[in-house]
User: Fold this.
Amino acid sequence: MIHDKFPPTSHLYPQTTATANDTMTWKTHIDAILPKLSSACFAVRSIKPYVSHQTLKTIYYAYFHAILSYGVIFWGQSPDTSKVFLLQKRVIRTMMGCGRRDSCRGLFAELGILTLPSQYIFSLLLFVVKNRKLFSLNKDLHSINTRQQLNLHQPSAHLKKY
Assistant:
C-alpha cells in the first residue's frame, strides 16, 4: 500500500506539528514546545552582550515568537499556557537586563511585544477577519432592526456534563 512507504507527517516535520492528546488538553504540545522556547531563551541570553536591543528583538521574533505563535489559536486557552507565559517573561527580562522578580508589564509595552494572552486574542481576531464568510451577523438571522444587528451571531451551545 502507498501509505506504508511514507512515514507519518509528524516524523517529516516534527518542529511544525501541533499535537493534542485524546482528551484535547494540548498538554502534549505545550510540553513539546517548552524545551524549544527554553533554547530560544538561552540563545537570547548568550548573544545579549554582543548585539543591540533591536537585534535582540529581531532574534526574539525569529526564534521565540515563531515557536510561540504557531497554532496559538488552538492551544492558547489551555491551562498549561502559564508555563509558556513564564518563559516569555523570562526572555523579555533577559532582553532588557532586568532581575528575576522585576515586573514585565512595562517591558512588554516598551518593546512593543504582545504577551501570550494578547497574542492569543490577536490571533483569534485575525482568524475571524480573514474568514469572515464563516460567520454570520445577527441581521442575517432576522429582519428586526436592533442595535446588535451588525454584531457576529453567537450560536448557543447545548453541552452536557457527564
Notes: The chain is about 50% helix and 0% strand. Confidence is low (pLDDT under 50) at residues 1-14.
